[in-house]
DNA sequence: CTACATGCAAAGTATTTGCATTGCA
DNA sequence: TGCAATGCAAATACTTTGCATGTAG
């Protein structure tokens, strides 16, 4: 998983300017295990940048996603972001429905899935949802995170 | 997969009233293989009901989802609905990125996935995205459907 | 200095709610 | 006939865009 400096380097390489706000954003994502919604980010950033506007948050999330430093996934309650997992190691995730932290699953079902030759596979998704050890000790208010 | 009458019966059992509009909705979903967005539904229904309003479509989709006759899934471009797959046969789907039709995969990776005992599994998702035979013959304009 | 980043305001889109009217059961 | 379903209008998110100003490089 990328650290703060790696995120900034990556952005800088691609010609993006490193502003104070982007430095904070990079740090926030580097230090967060789970997913963050634009609102989460806005609220966190807002504590340090009084005049912060939502559109800047959205713009930065979008560029960082396009640039590949962030992953974007759509939960039932909206889109969320997290740092991109290090490239090269294909894996899937267990996602906690409570805290939304993710844990890697290195097993990939794809090779043993029997897909008819007539279907041209582009990508796949395998996600396991539940409650992580920490959250099991606490209560589980109903919260959604995915399907089936 | 439920047919028109089964959908209506199910709704009627639960105390919902069978209006003309709901009859058409049931038929639409019973005869559609892929996913439909609220907008798709609105446009289709609008051809037969001139004064149709969007909120009624949303309300009916919601009720039918809560009732279990429709499945709701969130794509990157919004939520979509389809008839609920017949109960009892656990399976996953291949989803065409072009036409959004789905094809069953009876293989389930869950039993062979090594989940630490400390993680309490609630549900899982395994989806394969690509292009179905029919759509491969045509062009593939960029279209989104899921992650990873 | 120049081009990109930001804040502000406003526009878009998607979805939900309140209320009066209509119509199924 | 009574209560749920509908249409209409307006409210509420959520996200994007245009433009003037500020600032990294």
TrEMBL record, chains A, B:
Name the protein family. Answer: Belongs to the Fur family.
GO annotation, biological process? negative regulation of DNA-templated transcription; regulation of secondary metabolite biosynthetic process
CDD domains assigned:
Fur_like
Which residues make up the binding site for Fe cation?
A: 90, 124
Name a single GO cellular component.
cytoplasm
Recall the taxonomic lineage recorded for the source organism. Bacteria, Bacillati, Bacillota, Bacilli, Bacillales
Q: Which molecular-function annotation in GO is an example for this chain?
A: DNA-binding transcription factor activity
Protein name in the entry: Fur family transcriptional regulator, zinc uptake regulator
What InterPro entries does the record tag this protein with? FUR, Fur_C, WH-like_DNA-bd_sf, WH_DNA-bd_sf
- Free-text cofactor note: Binds 1 zinc ion per subunit.
This protein's cofactor list reads: Zn(2+); Mn(2+); Fe(2+)
Key word Repressor present in the record?
Answer: yes
Q: Provide an example Pfam family for this protein.
A: FUR
Binding of Zn(2+) occurs at: 96, 99, 132, 135
Its annotated compartments are: Cytoplasm
Q: Does the keyword Protease apply?
A: no
Major subcellular site: cytoplasm
Which domain of life does the protein's organism represent? Bacteria
Keywords, A to Z, come to: Cytoplasm, DNA-binding, Iron, Metal-binding, Repressor, Transcription, Transcription regulation, Zinc
